Fold each of these.
Amino acid sequence: MPLLTEQYSNTLTELLFEKTDEFVGVYDLVNKRFVRVNQAGVRMLGFPSEAALLNDPVRSRSVRYPPLNDESLGSLIARIIATGTHQEQTEVRRQDGQTFWGQLTTTAFSVHDSSYALIRLVDQVRLHQAERDLEHSVRRNEAIFSSATIGIVVCDRAGQIVSANRLAHQLFGYADNGLMSQTIEQLVPTGVSHYHKKLRHSFNENPQVRAMGQNRDLQAQRADGSVFPIEISLSYFQLDEELFVVAYIIDITFKKESERQLLAHKDHIEQLNSALEQKVADRTHALMNTLEQLEQSKDELARALAAEQELGELKSRFVSMASHEFRTPLTAVLTSATLIEKYPGGDQQDKRQKHIDRIRSSVKNLNDILEEFLSLGKLEAGKLVAQPVRVQLNQFIAETVADMRLMLKPGQTIETHLNGPDSAWLDPSMLQKTLINLLSNAIKYSEPGSAIKVVVSVVRQQLILSVADQGMGISKDDQRHLFERFFRAKNATNVNGTGLGLHIVGRYVDLMGGTVSLTSELNEGTTVTITLPYENHTVN
């Protein structure tokens, strides 16, 4: 051991033993035993310490299961010394009796005329699982890109299209992969293609995530030369110092036609009103009743027009929100999937894992957004009805809070004060989704290290559930709109969200026969309080 202590400096120990999550050991080929094993190797074989492994009469001599006999071991050592290296797949047994298959690589070396070997063992199960997870993640995200309900086109700095999804090919009338041989200017009407080049150069100099063509109509050109109206949002990412621009394209042909019809309808109504007013002026007092009826019709038409305008605004807000919320995780997925290809080596798993985790997080974000859309669709369709059953309330809330702890930011805590009844008649699904939504908002809009409080109590035969945070708070002007669809507070625009969470909470609470209220101060926090009836319910 003094010889090894002298030869293996701190730098070499750091590189070979402490900077890898694989088994690495030094084996004395003369005495046929390990003289050093790194901490990752100790954990892989299930020993409490390196000393315990080196003192084990079996494991200190071989990691194979079962170990080689003396004759076979001697023959193998002679081959390693003669050839300098040896590699094989072998079964390995942990201290707790579990076995796994590993890739064993042995490299011989000499120190002061003594023969040693550096032995490296890679757990094949982990490698294969990581490869499968990566393949599944790539397939899922390719499916999301290909099945997106908006056209997506990616081009490089020179305007050459490098990627486009299926809907983009359909919108522009190209066969599969036909857009890959085109430039972005070929999708612009011929008369403005030169102007578009200047705009592209300007964007390259100062790339920003933004909508394109503010306050003016945009058109695109199909493969057959025909044009159609569009809305475009731009994003970008950089890969190996190369700029790539992402265009999210929506065909608004039907929207424009609807607007045209709406304006024509409005003009027609105004003409009718003018004619009616003239007739009313010419008629006697005997026709006043008829005039009142016509005025009622006018009001009804105005309300219908206002309703259509509100619907148009909701659609625009939805498209803008969905474009933004899908664009960010999709860009992260595309960037991470590309970067993973840059780390093919077995010793680069930590770098690959960082991007795999980023892909998983982005996919989960997309799944949460879709879940909110599905919940809203069911609520709007009136398909949900509260179905109360007897719930062990304190246990139910404690388990839900425990599940949410995985989402906490560093240093965040959730404190619970459960003073409610042991059981209550409530809809468990609606209550759980409501509580998860409130806790998610509290975590999302609060800083690391802050505390979140969940309080349950009973006041006058009413169950009171409140969730309080110490987050950014909400202004008084925004509070009156918080339960509207797709509304986002002004100070929350830089935080991911759909603006549906509190709207869905309000609908669930209403279906359970309760009420919801909110108090908040900017930079001090927010408290959401839900009041629910919980007694005198029966299964029938």
Note: The two ends are 79 Å apart (CA to CA).
Amino acid sequence: MLLRPLRRYLLTLLLCACFSAGGLQAQSLYGRILDAETRTTLPGATVLILQDGVRITGQITDGSGAFRFSRLPAGRYALESSFVGYEVRRDSVEVPASGPLELTLHPARTMLEEIVVASQRGDTDRYAAGLEVIKPSDLARIPMPDVTYDLAGYLLTLPGVVSTGDRGGQLFVRGGTPTQNLVLLDGMRIFQPFHVVGFYSAFPADIIATTEVYAGGFNARYGGRISSVVDIRTRNGNKERVTGSASVAPFVSGVRLEVPLRKNEASLVLSARESIIDRIAPQVLGEELPFRFGDRFAKFHAFLNQTSSVTLTALRTSDTGNLSADPGADTAEDLRRSTWKNEAYGGRYTYIPEEAAVMTELAVYYSSLQSRYRQTAEEVRQADVSELSLNIGFTYLLGLNQINFGLFGNTNFFDFSFGRGRSQVSSGVSSGGAFIEGRWVVSEFLQLEPGLRVEAFSRGLRRTMAPRLRVQLLPGGTGSRHRLSLAWGRYHQQIVGLNNEQDVSDVFTVWTASPRGTPVPTAIHYIAGWQVRPLPWLEVSLEAYRKNLSNLSFPVFSDEVGVLAEFSQVNGRAEGVDIKAEITTRRVYLAATYARSRVAYIRPTQRSRAIFLAGTGQSILLPRLVFNPPHDRRHQVGATLRLTAGDWAFGSRWQFGSGLPFTQVNGYYTGLEVSEPGDTGFLFQEGSALVSRARPYGGRMPTYHRLDVSVEHTRVFAKADLTLQAGIVNVYDRANIFEYNIFSGSRVDQLPLVPSLGVRVDLR
């Protein structure tokens, strides 16, 4: 039904083109936009066609920085290309052109009075509700214990993003759990996107072209998660010459290589990183930091001809570490209590016909996660999950507007065990459907992005309709200092992640399907945003949001000490306000953020077998309960500063977070099993250790705050750039708590004061 109007519309355009062919023959103009210094492509750049000063048409470059105009009458035109943070370029072009154009943009060296680029995703959508568009240059503003930069460090500065700390690699976005975040790398789903040391993601900044972070209200093309989306597009390799970089630093060392396999047509990007902190910490810090992690990345990109291209991407990561509050962890097995490995492989074929304003994309992806958690030498939990997905997408360019629609299918396989005495569980689920979304520039004051996602699940709800809408308002038209934006949508998630939240540091997650015969987890998002630029160098944004959550899985603790809980169904809501102010000049960048939020879960009255009464196995009626989950951080404050003076740069970051909830313990007692009245056998039993807990999550951990600083110096040579960096993590050595084991009474803190010194070489 949705295809008929599109076919009629395209048929009309084709007929009109045929009737007008007698006067002027339609031609194509195509090419790509590159960064003049790094030679990386610029997805989301704006390309405009003008004739005699009048705008004829325009479009946005795709994920590979490519553009294509079809049905242009022969003649001479002005071509204007632009991108946020770059100088505008204007060229005179002749149609028909002799071949593909390759246009380079230079980074802007001075602050513009007002950055105004019509119909450009990197500008207008940068301030849209729930959306943050991140460029590689943004990542360099955040101090790291490393001479390189990483996406994880930037995400931690965003208001509404909550982390459990420096260890564990878990991020909670506006009330959602880590397993409710959709993280895509070139379209591949990454189940565990962050390393065991929370500073680092599975993808270094060197390979990233652009990143879109939706804290909520995301478009219809995204599905399978109900909280947020992190959509990462990697850079294509240099197709003209060999280039790369290498770095050495206390936490992680890495190397990147870009090789043109065929000049101007095919390239290969290779990246590898490996941590060394576990080997040097005893000498540098005088204490153990039992973490080891690394990642490997490869990307092949080639233009098959003037109308098509192919991309092949691969990623592998590995993490091992001891996140337990166990002072006796000194063996090789103890140091590997938590382990996980990501693998992801994908291929994408893109085709743009010569004489049609439509782009077709066919993609196949496979990703998997293997996770292990060792409680004791004999007690090992394991959880494996894998996914195979197929996507077919179409993008119709209708002048300034566009329509996207596609078909998709996913299959997931699960294999997990909760440890000794628990049976192995293997299962699989599938889903499939279609989506359609539009991007309509109604006027210079209003832009709409309606969408609809239709999906069928093999578990839970058989069929879902998920309407979505994003709105942007410019009260003063193009160039307005004020921007208002709204987002609303309905979201579903068939596969869920289950955590034993009895210990806040436990990163062991079981991925499985939502319970059969019950509705899948659902969320409804409401977001309203306002952004204003009162001065050319000052920008302020404010967003209010609410997420209504239903059918979530949450643990209900057993009274037995150390026994993994079962899970019950809960509903909930997350609401809050995020505020951000940025000062950006040629030499100074200063950002201040504040987030006020509240996350509440409601467990309705239900009968459950989740609690076992002294080993009887009898189910009980769970009363209605309202509580705040472990990631309910009410207040969060952040400040980031970067000063640049010639070849020197100084950076600092300070973070503050109010305490996270946890369940307090009243005490412990011995439970004895009495089989029947008058039985005296219990007198000779040792009994089992039971725990009496206070109100669920009624306590609060201490506040969290930390200051990091760094200074770097760059020397430019003929064929390479040399960067030296020195920094300190946790400057005033704040003892931020990471975990307190309620059974053993032992405590583990976040990272102490950690000095760093690194060196990096970038080939030109």
Note: The chain has a mean pLDDT of 81.
Amino acid sequence: MTCQPTKVPAADTIDIDALRAKYAAEKAKRVRKDGQAQYTRPTGDILPDFAADPHMPQAARAPISEEIDALVLGAGWGGIMASYYLTKEGVSNIRNIDTAGDFGGVWYWNRYPGIQCDNDAYCYLPLLEQMGFMPSKKFSDGQEIQGYAKSIAARFGFADKALFHTQVNSLKWDASSQRWRIGTNRGDDIRARFVIVAAGVLNMPKLPAVPGIDKFRGKMFHSARWDYAYTGGAYGAPVLDKLADKVVAITGTGATAIQAVPHLAKYARHLYVIQRTPSTVDERPNPPTDPDWAKSLEPGWQQARMANFHRGAQEVFQPGESDLICDIWTEINRNLSAQLAAEGKEVTMEEFMAKREVMDFQVMERLRGRCDALVKDPATAEALKPYYNHMCKRPLSSDDYYPAFNRENVTLIDVSDSQGLEAMTELGFIANGEEHAIDCMIFASGFEVTSDLDRRWGIATFKGRDGVSIYDHWRDGPVTLHGITTRNFPNMGFIGYIQGGINSSVTEHFGRQGAHMAWIIAQALKQGKTVVEPSQEAQDAYVKTYFEIRPDLSALQARCPPGYFNNEGAANNKWALFPGWGYGWDNFEEMLSDWRTVGDMPGMEVS
């Protein structure tokens, strides 16, 4: 079935100038001077340290002392894809290290009720053709995703090499042995010739630094450490029957809350939903996978689908191209493509961007209209309306979130005027000057996505050549060759949103970075090279080009309300998401492919 444009309010019915002013006013009242400092990590006196695993007991083991070819720091999608490509290149003397108890990354930790991926699973789950696997539906449940992640590690032979429930405390380059020395909280001493840092972007939960949080006498937990012993139910069976006599609050209204709130609303005696900035919440058709469609797919279908998704979500559909994804992520470009085809004339890039901005307002107006259509109380509906540009926050979808606010036992507490919770007390929380008594506080407050590296990685000592700390080296933001390697950190690669091509499918993006670094490692091992490091000249040239051609997103980011996309409204957002290559994803991947084809790693000092 061909995906059709959505019905949006006509452009001439929208007062765009008034909306621009509204967007600016809504952003201004939410910006806080303390920025990323408004979030913290628990000390253990308030909540258990987030490194602790509530899902699986930690098995005792003896410390390991060994030499290996490659250490992969992380066992989420970045780490899994790095190990897959290392294995494919013939590098098998490897280990993954992770604080979790198994593979999966965020899909290991996140087990809250209703958890699903909010991206098209046929794009998000990598290696579907290689694995002979097909997701059960368009938006996979968390259990399916984590089970699939584990199956990749098992199929390609690196599952039993991983060290789980293990925190890396120190990473140091040892010039005398030309290896990385890795120390852990389990007493390990690992000497690795190469290291791939795949620490993830959704790995470190953050906790609002609310005054008085240590005084609260009720139950508290983070949504990424869900406590089914308290709520009742189990992972995959969210019958939260132990909440029947409980008053519960959940703070945060991002992707987690959108999925968890309907379940909490169904079972809690009363539920307070504490919101600073509302999300966009579109409808969520989630049909099971059509077996006839699956049988009809030709080899190469997943790469073609991912390319289509990327063009629809981040670039532009090709003339006559159908939207294969057909959801909130691709709506603006889908509608715009239909509009341009109907007009039948070519436009300049400036004209295209102007039309795209107008379509952004039209789509957001449609999404705000869903609040009025689905929420009975007008004041609640108005408070749930998102007033910002489409990609200022992660686009979400749910058929059950808005209707939850029609229940008598659900109250929305909007804290935009006070920029968050004012305080917690022994009995509950204070918002807008009023105390609310509760039994349980759930923090759906997200992760350290764009904050400083030392907050995200949790590695106390991370030093390269001559004792240079990565936290100092990248204090003002990353400097790299190809967004993957960096001077003074030889034999090391990085996976993440770092100065390179950005694909809308995070697993494809991380996978291509892993493939590139795996090729470098394999070539060095085959050729008997001991040190591979970008030259200063090559790195400087790449960084210079990157900034010269980088798309200027500063105006958009400056308009967005504070959140993890812009590190809580930071003026100089050095770790902003989506730092794309100015010539696009395909050009970036072609550049890296050509670089590998040359064979002698130009720009690298190899010894």
Note: The radius of gyration is 24 Å.
